[in-house]
Design goal:
single chain, two-stranded antiparallel sheet, mainly alpha, about 325 residues
Length: about 325
């Protein structure tokens, strides 16, 4: 085994050591109840990670010049904010969903145009879009918490089907559909070809720009869906959620590359990464780690994971 192959496994080793430490200091951490809580808390992260994975697959896994979309968490918060604001105004949920979806698609299309038509850098474009969308959401919600007790939103958190929370089943279905589209269809194969080698894909007649643009729209759609799970998890819309969500999205998605034999970002890898990140977040709370230290640790882990990803890519 090459040294670069071992480097790709180091993020998993680090997470394994952290989880081992948590389990030793929190005896109830590995109970079924705790594991169910981890999965439930990870659902919004799973959705945004799935969206980011599609963008990375289309644009390549170079974190600077490749595929990246940092605006997905802001899109999710915008979806939650619009839905919460309209629900409290007496609007039906279906209308709220349509308006929220339209707003999210506008964000995705804006990213697509700025990056594929104007030629802006994905990292800077989506970071600027993140700030802009958060500002729009603050205007809509007046930067206040909005409680939501709609039956359908509550069902995502509390309803069970055959003993399994409905939210888990719904997210599993969404991820399965995305996986099928990305790995079992011609569109998905072209998407991966564009991300693997843009020049080779274009020589083969694949319109890489079109696929990249479509990936940003798909990412915006996952942000739209994530908004409803944010409402369910927090019993409403809360300001500031997007910051931690972005940290966890980046960390989980690029951590997931360690699950791939080729050390590249994949859909299932991103989902597994989201579960690991949620486990660490809940684990730190269970052993009483200060929330500020938790943010510092997550930020440090992002640096480590992205650095190892770059080393593994250089090895390839």
């Amino acid at each position: 085994m090459k040294i670069t192959d071992l480097v790709g496994y180091l993020p998993l080793v680090i997470f394994g050591l952290v989880l081992t430490y948590i389990s030793l200091h929190a005896p109830n951490f590995l109970t079924l109840q705790s594991l169910e809580l981890i999965v439930m808390q990870s659902l919004p992260v799973v959705l945004v990670c799935a969206g980011l994975a599609v963008v990375v697959m289309a644009g390549g896994d170079d974190v600077v010049s490749g595929g990246i979309d940092l605006s997905i968490p802001a899109t999710a918060v915008l979806s939650a904010g619009i839905t919460a604001q309209m629900l409290t105004s007496g609007m039906p949920l279906a209308l709220c969903a349509v308006v929220a979806l339209a707003a999210c698609i506008v964000v995705g299309l804006s990213n697509a145009v700025l990056i594929t038509k104007i030629g802006m850098t994905p990292l800077l474009t989506t970071l600027a879009m993140f700030v802009a969308v958060v500002g729009v959401n603050n205007v809509i919600t007046v930067s206040r918490r909005i409680n939501v007790d709609h039956s359908w939103i509550v069902a995502l958190r509390a309803q069970e089907i055959a003993g399994i929370p409905a939210g888990i089943l719904l997210v599993a279905l969404i991820v399965a559909i995305l996986f099928f589209a990305a790995h079992r269809t011609g569109w998905g194969l072209n998407l991966q070809a564009a991300g693997g080698s843009r020049d080779a894909a274009e020589i083969s007649g694949i319109d890489a720009n079109r696929l990249v643009a479509q990936s940003f729209v798909v990412a915006a759609f996952t942000g739209f869906l994530c908004g409803f799970f944010l409402l369910a998890r927090g019993s409403g819309s809360s300001p500031g959620v997007q910051d931690n969500l972005m940290l966890e999205m980046v960390l989980a998605t690029f951590l997931g590359a360690a699950f791939s034999p080729r050390r590249v970002v994949t859909l299932w890898g991103a989902v597994l990464g989201a579960l690991l990140v949620a486990a660490i977040s809940i684990g730190f709370k269970s052993i009483g780690v200060n929330v500020f230290w938790t943010g510092l640790i997550k930020g440090s882990l992002i640096v480590v994971v992205v650095a190892f990803s770059a080393l593994a890519q250089r090895g390839r």
